[in-house]
Design goal:
Layout lengths: L1 H22 L27 H5 L14 H15 L2 H6 L6 H26 L4 H18 L6 H21 L7 H14 L1 H23 L1 H11 L20 H16 L9
The structure holds zinc ion.
């Protein structure tokens, strides 16, 4: 039941995250949603997470132009992630009031910010400073609050840098060509969120994930496109496929692996790296 409530809350938050990502630097957050093609106000019943998109078959009710798949995907992913976070509700009750409530709100805000950063980075290959600084600050607060029973200032302070130092070196050595400074800041926040050991594991796992997915995107796609064109099945210009020069953002990999490692912590799943 808690998972269901968390999931529904996640759907609504995901709907807001779409607005946050799409309006950043363009329009105020407070205005009602309009169709980007015809400017028609979107009524509340056409603005229900996922369901409206499916009922409208992904088209604007007024002008019929396509509504981006990003809307239902971000809503659905946020809903599922929030549902998986529902054990945090009972975990929060082990902390004295109001620390448990603060921690729960803190964690859900961090998760929302991470999802927004991942989507924004995917769209623009850029990580907004204000969002990642907010993440670092909130993650630091969570590290501080959870460490209160056996408070150790060194662990609290160093967990962020421990996770970020490797990315910082990559950024420094490559003068920002292989790694953006935004990724380094993100890793700092992930370190404060997960602690020094798990933060470091999350960064390592992001490298593996990034390498595997990049190879999957870079190697077969042009080949598949050529195969389909050669056989007259579909014509995809090879230039539309990803090439080695395409900039694949690293932020989404960091965030995906952070949320994965976070889940293993929440559910007490031992990572096979440490038998
Ligand atoms: Zn329209």
């Amino acid at each position: 039941m808690t998972a269901f409530v968390f999931g529904v809350f996640g759907l609504i938050v995901g709907s807001f995250l779409n607005v946050l990502v799409l309006r950043r630097g363009r329009a105020p957050l407070s205005g009602r949603s309009t169709c980007p093609h015809c400017g028609q106000l979107v009524s509340w019943y056409d603005n229900i997470p996922i369901f409206s998109w499916i009922l409208l078959r992904g088209r604007c009710r007024a002008c019929g132009s396509a509504i981006s798949l990003q809307y239902p995907i971000v809503e659905g992913v946020t809903g599922v992630i929030f549902a998986f976070f529902s054990p945090l509700y009972s975990a929060a009750q082990h902390f004295p009031f109001p620390i448990g409530v603060l921690l729960l709100a803190d964690y859900l805000t961090i998760a929302s910010l991470l999802i927004a950063i991942a989507v924004y980075d995917l769209r623009t290959t850029y990580i907004p400073d204000t969002w990642v600084y907010a993440c670092i600050a909130l993650a630091f607060v969570s590290q501080f609050l959870t460490s209160l029973p056996q408070f150790d200032l060194a662990v609290v302070l160093l967990s962020g840098p421990a996770a970020a130092v490797l990315l910082f070196l990559v950024w420094f050595v490559s003068k920002g060509r292989w790694m953006g400074l935004g990724d380094v800041k993100l890793a700092l926040g992930i370190g404060y969120l997960l602690g020094p050991l798990y933060g470091f594991i999350a960064v390592m796992f992001a490298f593996v994930l990034g390498a595997v997915v990049s190879l999957l995107i870079l190697l077969p796609l042009p080949a598949i496109a050529r195969f389909l064109s050669d056989w007259g099945i579909a014509h995809i210009a090879p230039s539309q496929s990803y090439t080695m020069k395409s900039e694949i953002p690293f932020g989404p990999f960091l965030i995906a692996s952070c949320i994965f490692v976070w889940f293993t912590q929440i559910y007490g799943i031992p990572l096979p790296l440490f038998p």
